[in-house]
Write a structure and sequence with these properties.
single chain, mainly alpha, 2 domains, binds zinc ion, 2 strands, 4 helices
């Protein structure tokens, strides 16, 4: 599918951002509806955040699972995974020092 130049009406290649005939910017005739139609909720999930906190590995796995479709949820999981990991490390050092 090719785009049409809004200014001179010439047919321009799909991926062209500028008309090769008149030099005007070409706006795609078909805005990607994929982004607009994605109604799947993408917000941090409290349950998954807790799971990530206690099992950081699960949080990182969820990050890779969700990052395409739910980047906000994915980043939240990764963040809590790092916090859980940091707590584990601090706790481990603390235990090592005490013994
Ligand atoms: Zn043109």
């Amino acid at each position: 599918m090719a785009n049409k130049c809004n200014t001179c009406g010439a047919t321009v290649p799909d991926n062209a951002t500028m008309c090769p005939y008149c030099g005007n910017a070409v706006t795609p005739t078909q805005p990607s509806n994929a982004v607009l139609n994605s109604t799947e909720e993408d917000e941090p999930s409290t349950g998954l955040n807790w799971l990530s906190l206690f099992i950081p590995l699960a949080g990182w796995i969820m990050y890779f699972v969700f990052k395409e479709k739910s980047p906000i949820k994915a980043k939240s999981c990764a963040k809590w995974a790092w916090i859980g990991f940091a707590i584990d490390v601090v706790y481990g050092i603390f235990n090592a020092l005490v013994e």
